[in-house]
Every structure is written in structure tokens, then in C-alpha cells.
Amino acid sequence: MTVEAKPILVIGGGISGMTAAVEAAEVGYPVILVEKEAFLGGRVMRTSRYFPKMCPPTCGFEINARRIRQNPKITVHTLATVEEILGSAGDFKALIKVRPRYVTGNPPLDGAVAEQLTSERPDDLNFGVGTVKALYYPHEMAVPALHVLDKEALSDADAATLTDTCPPGSIDLDMAEEEFIVDVGAVIVATGWRPYDATKLDTLGFGSYENVITNVMMERLNSTSGPTGGQILRPSDGKPATNVAFVQCAGSRDENHLPYCSAVCCTASLKQARYLREKNEDSRATVFYIDIRTIGRLEKFYYNMLEDENVAFFKGKVAEISEDPDTKDLTLAVEDTIAGEKPNLTFDMVILATGIVPNTADVKIPFDLTYDEYGFIDGSTEVAGVYAAGCATHPCDVSRSTKEATAAALKAIQCLNGGGDSNG
Amino acid sequence: MDEKIGVFICTGYGIAEALDIDALEKVVTGELSVPFCKTVDSCEGAALDAINEDIASEGLTKVVIAGISPRLYKDGVFPENVIVEKVGLREQVVWCLPPDDEDTQMMAEDYLRIYVTKVQKMQPVEPFLPEEEIDKTILVVGGGIAGITAALESAKAGYEVRLVEKTYKLGGWLAKQHKSIPTKPPYRDLEDTGIDTLVEEVHAHPKIHVYTSARTSEIVGAPGLFDVTLVSTGNGEPEGEVRGQFRVGSIIQATGWKPKEISDSLPYGKLDNVIRNVELEEMVKEAGKITRPSDGKEVKSIAFIQCGGSRDKEHHSYCSSICCLTSLKQALYLRENDEDSKAYIFYEFMRTPGKYEDFYRRAQEDHGIFLTRGEVSGITSNGNGQLSLTASNTMVGEQIQVDVDLVVLASGMVPNAADGEAIRLLEDAKVNAVEGDSETKRQEAAETVERLKHHEGTGILNLNYRQGPDLPSLEYGFPDSHFICFPYESRRTGIYPTGATRQPMDGKATKEDATGAALKAIQCVEMTSRGEAVHPRAGDQSYPDFNLQRCTKCKRCTEECPFGVLNEDEQGTPLYQATRCRRCGVCMGACPERIVSFKDYSVDIVGQMIKAVDVPDEFEEKPRILVLACENDAFPALDLVGQHRLQINAFIRVIPLRCLGSINTVWVTDAMSTGFDGVILLGCKYGDDYQCHFIKGSELASVREKNVREKLEQMAMDIERVELHEIQISDYHKLPKIFEDFAELIEEIGMNPFKGM
Fold it and tell me: Which of B203, B257, B277, B738 is a Cys-bridge partner for B413, taking CB atoms 3.0 to 4.6 Å apart?
């Protein structure tokens, strides 16, 4: 480590990527962190609380953000993607493409100007529920702390407003896409996941019935920065949800959808049942499951939920959901595999525990890697110089992701030390 | 170089529109006599270059920039030898108070007073570098798959490794296994364990020194400087004979697990043909077939009972994570050998997370594997060697009965770990039971000895630490981390537990976990060699100085340090071990004599910052409320208050602390004597689900709050003048009301009677 090593390229700035970056950089190695969104943090920044401690992800994010800010060895590119990787372990060239933000950050911009605009765009943070202005602050804890402009959504009148009111140079409507090549010694793939598209579950009514939402949307409902300011309200009438069904394995463990188990949804739903119980008085939660998979010490979280009389567990697969067109209440047809009956039960809101789909199922890493049939990177096939971590390799929770990211950081360092598997 | 202070006041971001900048400058140059003060229109990007030019041309050594939040600056943009403090006028004043208002102006002026005073008192930080060279060798304790992986991965990164195993050979539990569960697509087929190859690799690696039949009898020192003594465990050599003494930099504890005792409700040890999963595994590995212990007859049918020792609320309320997969695997051992055999698996929940679902599906497709959800209610011997098993609460709703050759109990995992804190308590109690001051104390100590005596002789690492010879345990005895985001953080710097000793996990997860632990161990020695703190104040080069001439040997610092940094000499004088230190300042808060100081953070510095506030006299009816806020959660939450343009009470004055646990009670008396009317403490959540990144900081602050209240009573003040709140970043919206309510309370009970005295 006497001469400066080539940097490690980390693809993905979610919890796995950020962790890999800071862990490697704190050992002493330079890192280039590439994130496709406008801010760091990825999925956890859309999560209200972590199980089992019910603590906000922003707490750990703040520490990681500080570690990144304070470490000159880390270079961050947001709105950026890796388009091409050539070469081999110890000597890669990666082509990075940066999409224009149209906001320069220098001179700084007064965000209040956004209020004067009429152009709007879907609110990505809230999974398209609601809109934001075309000039928007992408997350309240955004790193980098910069606005983003959606030029596509910006009307000519609004463009003129920005030109007239913003300090010259703070907005550059002619900003172009940028491409550059970096020399790196190793690559860490931490491209994460997306929720399974619940509209594909055609008997469960998502997309047709307003009060059927997904678990990731429930995270936003419980967030102060979410569409309801942190209240758990029915989308149809804005009334507090009081009788809520949690439908487990909505897509997962189903050969027609995701044959694997998404590993986190059981504990996530229990956590969300707690959101409901804490926020809405006299509310009831009913969890429909195949198996409750609260593994390891998470078991205590399940046992604690059993103490709550207003939380019921129901072993059975939800076959179909129907809606009362007047009340917008929902009736679940359930195969009750314990009693052998098929009861119909009615709720005012339903949360679908949709599963984890690797982002690499849609967009592959531009390098010769092996994927399994689900699109996860096949970690058992070793590719010298390229190491994957977190949900890019299998469905897993935050703690497991950060452990794998830390492990990937070491593999990358071994590679830079000329070692890899050849005894450094 | 002579000290010269400069202040830059930013006029951008709407600051100049909200505040009287001339008046601010007057406070700086007039009242505070700062020789250099300048306005700048931005404090980002190119504007920082201009500030740096002024620093150079004016010869400034200490600088205050009043503009955007300190959380928005990158490190390394200012010259290294210059102290730079940033004041977030934008977020914490301008954005959350009305513009062009007397009270807003007063707050901004106070923050300049506070931070100019701070830099006046701060001294440049120099990294701690011990005289002896930092050793970068990694000690791995435990030679199972976790230890083997940690050793190999550290060595491959170029580090010397000492690997210690208590038995005569490496391999641990994995070496006793016949096959492993699938890790490769299509995730359906059993795999070779690969352990023999790995063991060979370890023995062949030039950087790994292996000690088998050995254990650590003592570890003295601190990260980078640990002196380890190994003794024989008695295989071949006399037990306890010294096997080696050497120095290491950091430690990985990979001491693995042992099977959980089977609950009395199951006839293990009572019926011959009832065995545990670990015994079946060894049988298949050694004999290549499954036979009945009672008569050696080849087994044609097995009933597996899940959770035979785990998930029992009475005994054990965690799940051992791998037993479902192990039983599925063992069912295939039987089925792959004999097409006519039958395997029954009785479970409550089948736990095959992630891609292991494919393996479960393979078992479901096997016509000889019967997966039954239900509770086993009875196991009896048929007399002919067979066992008859009944199960109730099944999915078909009725009681079922099967006859099998063998019953296998899926026993759970318990960690091979010692509870360092309990051992320490036991040792202390043993002394006090004899030497205690009074009969009552001796009696209490004797009861403690009785309660903790099962910890006697359980030590594993045998650290020479005041707070105990091993890592503190979490619930169920795992020396795990409590943190979701930072799972490797243990409470002993440079010592990282990994694998099944810290939580139940499968082989693949263990390998990943151990590789990550190796990174952390390496990172620790590298950061220590640069004189830097490790997580969470990663990179901090400050460290506390103890003015021992004034020490009264009260031992509060040695007992309260969350990381066991301090040892004691015979007289009870604290012995500070810098490379163990996380720089939270808890010791500084604990010390009644105020002898603990960092160059850039001390009781005096914060006390002077408090006293720098210009408190109006009581007739102006402008109370002042001091807010001491945790830097990690409460302080960023205050930034978010501004960012969301929530309005706050104009009478608060916020001073951030490294950790609320570093609060020294004298600050509250300082505040009262300065004329503050009340103090709000903002810390992280404490209790079982604590969020404090220094583990015990916020909890200690809550204890000190009580001391503070006592002190207030002694001063004949209302104890309500001090309030503690647990605040996480996402609670930012609660802050305005907390301040408002407190201000109302002050109005009710009246202004500080000592104001102006």
C-alpha cells in the first residue's frame, strides 16, 4: 500500500454499495462509487424503519454519509451508470455515463423557486404516488445535497421562470450527458433490487383496487416524508386504516412468479403491523402466511407480536381479492390449510408483501458474469476482480447486505494487492 | 506560528436578507476582538478557494465560517494545520426563524460568540502514535469454517495470521459433515463441504501460523499492541504449558457453536433410537450409512423433529436458522441411498429463506419425504427397536401416527462464547464476599457469586481488561453486534466476533461473515497505525489526555467507558489505552474532577461555549434555553427542521456533543450561573433497542440527568429546568413542540433566579 493503488469501482450506492465503499476506503484504498439515482442510499432511503429495532435508516445513513464526506479517497458519481467494462482483474477500464442534473450547485440555488413552477413529475420516492415539481429535492437527506431538474417535464414558461429568477449559472438547461473512462483495479457490484411488479398478481387486484397497496408503499405511508405525512390512511378515502390484511408471499415462493423466497417479507410485514398498531388506535392486523420465517434472533420479534391480541396469524394462501365498489373494502378468499376451510374475510386495506427482484434481472452488468435463472449474480462462479454483494446476489436484509459488502471490499483489496486467490 | 482567528460570514442563501450582517460583523470584530472578519457570498465550491486564499494571505490559524450546515462540507478542503469550525446559520437560524427579527438576530450573534470562543479554546489535534510500532498481525481464535475463512482471507490480503484451535485439528463442525446444503444453481443438489481443501490451503499458506491443541490464556494490551500467550489444551503436551507468546494487532473470535441441550419433553437419552442431527451427521460421515443405535440395523425410516431445542419460549426464544435445511439435507441422505425409505419431517414453520426455497421444493417433490406441519405429542418404543410417533395440530386437523426406525431431533445452536461482564462481576463479588465493608455487602456479594458461579472458568479470550476477560454478551449469550447497519461493531475495539458464535448461520453465510470480519480486523490495524479512531468516529485523530495528578481514583471512567478502554493499576488509577478508544468522550462526562480533555473537545471548551452566550437580564423577558444535542441524530434533525422550514422557539441555543454520554454535569451549573433558564438534553434512544452508536452514551446521560436534578435541588432550583428527550433523525418534526412546551414551562416556573448575579 505504499504506492497509491488503482481505485475500486463500486456499482450501486445503496446500503451495500455505500458500505463497500467506506469499508474499503477506510482501510486506505481509493474508491469510485457510482449511483444511478440522484442521491445515495437506494432502497433504505425509502424505508421508514428497520426491523427488529424499529430504528430509522437515516441514523445509520448519517454516519455513512459522514464517512463518505470526510474521506477524500471516495469519489461519488450520482445520476451515473457504468456502460462498459473492459480488461481484467487489476486492470479494468470502465465507461461511466452521467446524466445531466441541470442544477450545477455553483452558485447555489434557492430551492424556494420550485414553488413558483407549475410543471410536475411523478414522485419517484413515493413509487409514483403523488407528484413533485419538475425542480425537486430528491430526498430530505439527499447526498449530494442538490436539487434535480427534470427537463422533460419542464414547460417553456417554467424554463423561463428559472432563467429569470435563479442566479446565473445555478441552472444549466444545456447541460449535456457526460461520458468518461476510469481506470480501476477491481469492481464491486451492489446493484440491489426492485419490488416485484404487483400488477402481475392478477387475482389480487393491485392497480385496480385502490386500497390494495404493496409493502414498499406501506413504508412510505409510515414516513413523515411520505405522501400522508406519516399517517396510515386508506388511499380511497384518506381515512385511517383500522382493519388491515398482510398478504405474505405475494409473488414469492410461487413458480408462476418468483419461485424463491424473498427472505425479508415476513419480518417486514410484522414490522408494518407494528406501524399500524402504533399509529392507528384499535386497529387490527391479520397476517396470511405460508410459513413465518423470522430466522435467528428475529424470532423474538415474532413472539412479541403474538402477545398483541389485535394481531392475528392465519396460515393460508390468499387466492383472490375482491372489492366492494361502494365501501372500497376488500374481501379475501383464503385457502385455510389448517382448518381445511375457505373462509372469506373483509378488510379496509390490504398490504401485499411483494418480493425482491434483482435489478440485474432487467439490466445486466456490462461484463461477462454468470447469473442464475432468476437474474441474481451467481456468486458461486468466481470472476477474478469482480465481486458482488447484497441483493444483487440473493434476497437478503440490511444486516446481511452490509456484511457481504464488507466481505466484497476485502476481496477487491486482495485483487488490488495483486493477490486475488494467489496468496497476496 | 502565532494564533490568528478569522471569521467568514456568508451572505448568500437568504442569510443577508434575514440578518443584519453589519451587526454580526460588529460582534465579531468589536465585542469578540477578532482581527479578521469578512463577508462571502457563498461557502461552497469556488467560494472555498477564495476563503483558502484569505487564510493563506492573512496567516489565519483558526477560522469560523458562518453559513451552511457543517454537515455539508467535505473534509480536506481547508489547509491541514488550520482549525475550521462551521456554523449552520442557514439551517438552524435563518430557515427556522422569522427574518429581520430581533430574536433571530440575537440567536445568530450568540452562535458567533459560541463558535469564536470554541476556536479560541481549541488546540490542533495530533494523532496518537505509540512509541512501539503497530503490529498488523491478525489473531484468529477458532479453527472451524469461520476461523479458517478469516485466516485465509486475511492472509490473501497480505497480512500475517496466527490461527489458534483448541482441538488437535482444524475443520470444526464442517469437518464432521457428510455434505453441505446447495449454494450453486439450480440450488437443488448437495455439495461437498470442501473443508479438506481449505484446511490444506491454511497449512500451506506461508503467512498463516497454525496452533492446534492451544488456547489463549492471556491477552494483554490494545489494538496494534496485543500481547498474546497461548497454552496447550492438553492433547499431547501437558495442559497449560505455554505454547507461544507473540504480539498481534487485532483479533477475530471465531469460536463457533455447540448443540443446544434438548428439552426434557423429548426422550433424548432415554430411548436408544432417538438421536440428534449432529450425531446423524457424524454417523453418515464416518460409516457412510444410517443404522439404528439399538441394534445396528439399517434404517429405512426416519422422523425428523424440528426445533428440538430451539424456538422453545420457555428455554430459548431464538431460531437456530439452519436446522430446517439440515433436516432436509439429512432426509436426502436417507432417500439417496434407498429408494424405498421414508423420511417424515415435523415442523411448525419450514424456514428455507431465499434461494434455499429451491432445495425445499426438491424435497417436496420427493415422494418419500413427508413434510408435516404439526406438533409431536408422543414418542414411544414399539419394543422391536422401532419408535411410534404421534403428532397433533396437523394441517389435516387430526392426530397422526407413524412408526419409524429412528427419530432425529433438530437440535439448535448455542454460541461458544463467554460473557466477559458476568465473569468480571463474579470476580468482584468473590472479593467482596470476603472483604466487603459490612455484613449486608458481604451477603449481597455472596448471593451474586451464587447467581453467577456458572460463569466460573468459562473465559475464552482471557483479555486483560478492567471490564472483563471476554466480549460482553447480548441476549442469549451471543457476543453479537446490536447494530443493523454496522453488524461488525463489537464493544471491544479491534476484536470482532464472527460466524456462529455471534448468531446462528449456515456455512455460506459464515464464510461471508468471516471475510467481512477479516476486512474489519485489517481496517482496524491500518487505521490504528495512522493514529485514527475506528467506527463510528472513523478517522478522528483526537484522543483524550488524563491529568492524573488530580485523579481521585473514583473509577467512574473505567467503569462507564462503553468500550472497556481503561484499565486500572493496583491503586485504582485509570490506565488509558489509546488504541482501544472510540473518542466518544464518555470518560470526560464521567469524571467529577474534570481531568479528561481532548485538544478539540473538553469540559472547559464546552463550558466556555455555554458562558459565551449573551444572556439578557430578566426584565427583557427573553429566556434562554440551552440545548445539548447528540451530533449524530439530534443535530442533523435540527438541520431537517430548518430544511422543512418548521419554525422553532427563538430562545434556544444549541451546542452539539460527540455523544450525550460525554455530558459533564458541570455544564448544567455553568448554564445556570450564566443565566440560562433551562437545559434540554437531546440524545439517542436507550434501553433494549438502544440506538446510541457509543452503546451506553445516551443511557449514561439519562443517569447523569438525575444527578443534575439533584444538583439543581441543592441550588434551590426547580428540577424541571432540565429535560432529556430521546430523538432520532426522523423525529425532527417533534422538535419545535419540545422546545415550545419547554419554553412554556419556563414561563410558568419563572426565570432563573440567579440571572444577572
Answer: B257
Element (H, E) at B636: helix B634-643
Label residue B82 exposed, middle or buried (CB < 10 Å: 0-12, 13-18, 19+).
middle
d(CA B529, CA B533): 10
CA distance B329 to B277: 10
pLDDT tens per residue across span B86-128: 999 999 999 999 999 999 999 999 999 999 999 999 999 999 9
pLDDT band at A341 (very low <50, low <70, confident <90, very high): low
Q: What is the pTM of this model?
A: 0.97
In chain B, what residues touch A417 (CB-CB under 8 Å)? Answer: 157-158
- CB contacts < 8 A, A to B, total 253
User: Are the CB atoms for B644 and B733 separated by under 8 Å?
Assistant: yes
User: Any idea how long chain B is?
Assistant: 757
**Phi/psi class of residue A249: alpha, beta or left (left: φ > 0; alpha: ψ in -120 to 50)?**
left
From chain B, pick out residues whose CB is under 8 angstroms from the CB of A15: 485
B6 CA to centre of own chain: 39
Q: How many helices (H) and strands (E) does chain B have?
A: 20, 30
Least confident of A254-258, A419-423, B126-130, B498-502: A419-423
First to last CA, chain B: 39
Place of cell 451467481: A378
Helices within B213-367 (DSSP H only): 277-287, 323-337, 356-365
Q: Which residue shows C-alpha cell 471490564?
A: B467
**Interface confidence (ipTM) of the complex:** 0.96
Question: In this structure, what C-alpha cell is assigned to residue A207?
Answer: 392497480
The one-character DSSP state at B125 is -
Q: How close, in Å, is residue B13 to chain A by CA atoms? A: 7
Q: How far apart are CA A404 and CA A229, in angstroms?
A: 34
- For B508, the closest chain A residue by CA position comes to A380
The verdict on A417 touching B (C-beta cutoff 8 Å) is yes
Q: How far apart are the first and last CA of chain A?
A: 12
Helix (H) / strand (E) element for B54: namely helix B46-58
3-state secondary structure A167-212: CCCCECCCCCCEEEEEEECEEEECCCEEECCHHHCCCCCECCECCE
- Cα–Cα distance measured from residue B97 to residue B739, given in angstroms and rounded to the nearest whole number: 13
Helical axes B420-435 vs B439-452, angle rounded to 10° = 150
> Quick one: cell of A31?
474508491
Nearest CA in chain B to A382: B184
Residue A23, phi then psi, degrees to nearest 5: -65, -45
* DSSP letter, residue B716: T
Torsion of CA B196, B199, B205, B208, to 10 degrees: 180
Contact A419 B42 (CB under 8 A): no
CA distances from B394 to B165, B373, B399 (A): 45, 5, 7
Q: Nearest CB to B156: which of A1, A395, A424?
A: A424
Report the C-alpha gap between A287 and B267 in whole angstroms: 35
B181-197 average pLDDT score: 96
User: Residue A289 — left, alpha, or beta (φ > 0 → left; ψ -120 to 50 → alpha)?
Assistant: beta
Contact A41, A142 (CB under 8 A): no
- pLDDT tens, residue by residue, B543-585: 999 999 999 999 999 999 999 999 999 999 999 999 999 999 9
Query: At residue A134, what are phi and psi to the nearest 5 degrees?
Result: -65, -25
Q: Give chain B positions within 8 Å (CB) of A361.
A: none
Cα angle for residues A352, A355, A359 (degrees, 5° grid): 135
pLDDT, tens digit, 9 for 90 and up, residues A104-133: 988 888 888 999 999 999 999 998 888 999
